[in-house]
């Protein structure tokens, strides 16, 4: 399931709803991304997340479908917020549920790595020097690239 | 008369181009994304600045990532944006 929204989310309620009634699920793994208060050496007051409505949902659905192809998953969830967020706020939630923990852990990690380099979101940080667009990081590309192995498994 | 191209700009590309969305008739001689960028650069300062470093410009046609040699045709939605920074 994909949700792109301005509102905050309740982690417990979302995970409960995700697995509700499916007793084949033995493992549920989730990751929550939060807004940090520092960028480089600068203190951030807030940030604004812009996205590409339409393509965002398509890319997230594609990433989710790919996770289901790679692992035996019973349920997945991606929630990504946009708009104005403050330090400490939740930005993103990804979750993967499966019969066993290994698929849940790996799929969860895959979902957040791919989301960070594929989903069309952009962060504008409020710094003391004014608005600053966040630069993409090479380490994020590397994190995505290591999933592109023939076996579909992460590099050791 | 054929349908116009719908052009979208996001993040700092939008700020530099000075516009978020516009419709333009498919320019003569423009058959690919790269040629469309060349044409946009020729329109003025903001566009020239937005596309000054094409290594940091990502392009989507009809909401799918494409490379610079991808064709553009009347009615397409073409979006230009920086490398993404969500999550």
Given the C-alpha coordinates, what overall shape of chain B results?
A: globular
Structural class of chain B: alpha+beta
Note the gap between the termini of chain A: 29 Å
Arrangement of strands in the largest sheet of chain A: 1-6-8-2
**DSSP strand tally of chain B:** 5
Give the overall average pLDDT of chain A. 93
* Main sheet record of chain A: 4 strands, mixed
Largest sheet of chain B: 5 strands, mixed
Q: SSE order of chain A, as H and E?
A: EHEEEEHEEEHEEH
Amount of beta strand of chain A: 25-35%
Low-confidence stretches of chain A: 152-156
Instruction: Give the strand tally of chain A.
Output: 10
Report Rg of chain B: 12 Å
User: Please, what is the average pLDDT of chain B?
Assistant: 95
Report strand order across the widest sheet of chain B: 2-1-5-3-4
Q: Any idea of the CATH class of chain B?
A: Alpha Beta
Oligomeric nature of the chains: heterodimer
In CATH, the architecture of chain A is Alpha-Beta Complex
Features:
heterodimer; A: 156 residues; alpha+beta; Aldehyde Oxidoreductase, domain 3; four-stranded mixed sheet; four-stranded antiparallel sheet; 10 strands; 33% helix; globular; disordered C terminus; B: 87 residues; Ubiquitin-like (UB roll); 5 strands; 24% strand
